């Protein structure tokens, strides 16, 4: 769920493609191996070890491996959206990237994404606990972001995280709609023309 929400927040075009694919797309089958084997099948040993160390450091989040997943998708998933790949084609696409990705680039991108997430002024309540286990917290020296309710709490009347509803654009009320400029009637135009002609003859 965290990974889906991160993609929706940080990579909307890719998330929209997954949504169009339905439940199969939202299962994110192509990244199960990444997480289960800790990227060992995707990168050479040295690169994988550096990624493990970055995850074990728990720097600003306990879910850095999810930012690594997002980084891979950002760097190597453009063909998925451009070609509108189906679920099985998407799985094949990312499987074929095994041992052909730049681990250093992925690690740098993941750190950049974490930094961007840290600076967000608002986060959805579905990602509220992403850094819950990080000791004092990741926003110690900065402002605390506003939590917005995602509205996906079927068993609760209100947001359990204290999130505020996302403001919806207001449609203009009929009273606020300016009155259209009245169009002069043909009779009015003829009457005006007649008055002009009468004034010309009189003068």
Describe the overall structure:
- The protein is mainly alpha-helical and 203 residues long.
- The chain is built from 10 helices and 3 strands.
- The chain has helices at residues 2-10, 12-21, 23-26, 32-36, 45-56, 64-76, 78-82, 87-95, 103-118, 186-202; strands at residues 122-124, 146-149, 164-165.
- Strands 1-2-3 form a 3-stranded parallel sheet, with no helix packed on it.
TL;DR?
With 203 residues, this protein is mainly alpha-helical.
List the SSEs and their pairings:
Blueprint: H1 2-10, H2 12-21, H3 23-26, H4 32-36, H5 45-56, H6 64-76, H7 78-82, H8 87-95, H9 103-118, E1 122-124, E2 146-149, E3 164-165, H10 186-202
Helix pairs in contact: 1-2, 1-6, 6-9
What's the overall average pLDDT, rounded? 78
| Low-confidence region ranges | 135-139, 170-177, 185-203
Distance between the termini: 86 Å
| Biggest pleated sheet | 3 strands, parallel
Shape: globular
Total strand segments: 3
Instruction: Specify the number of helices.
Output: 10
Alpha-carbon Rg, integer:
28 Å
- Class computed from helices, strands and strand pairing: mainly alpha
Strand order of the biggest β-sheet: 1-2-3
Binned, the helix content reads 40-55%
Proportion of β residues? Answer: under 5%
List SSEs in N-to-C order: HHHHHHHHHEEEH
């Amino acid at each position: 769920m965290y990974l889906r929400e991160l993609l929706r927040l940080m990579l909307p075009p890719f998330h929209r493609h997954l949504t169009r694919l339905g439940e199969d797309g939202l299962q994110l089958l192509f990244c199960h191996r990444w997480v289960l084997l800790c990227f060992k099948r995707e990168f050479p040993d040295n690169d994988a070890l550096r990624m493990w160390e970055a995850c074990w450091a728990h720097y600003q989040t306990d879910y850095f491996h999810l930012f690594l997943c997002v980084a891979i998708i950002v760097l190597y998933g453009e063909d998925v959206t451009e070609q509108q790949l189906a679920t099985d084609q998407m799985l094949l696409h990312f499987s074929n990237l095994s041992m052909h990705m730049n681990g250093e680039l992925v690690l740098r991108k993941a750190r950049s994404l974490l930094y961007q997430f840290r600076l967000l002024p608002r986060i959805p309540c579905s990602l509220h606990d992403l850094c819950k286990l990080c000791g004092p917290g990741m926003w110690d020296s900065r402002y605390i972001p506003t939590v917005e309710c995602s509205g996906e709490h079927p068993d609760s009347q209100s947001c359990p995280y204290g999130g505020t509803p996302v403001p919806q654009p207001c449609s203009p009320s009929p009273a606020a709609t300016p009155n259209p400029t009245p169009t002069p009637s043909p009779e009015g135009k003829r009457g005006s023309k007649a008055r002009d002609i009468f004034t010309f003859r009189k003068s």
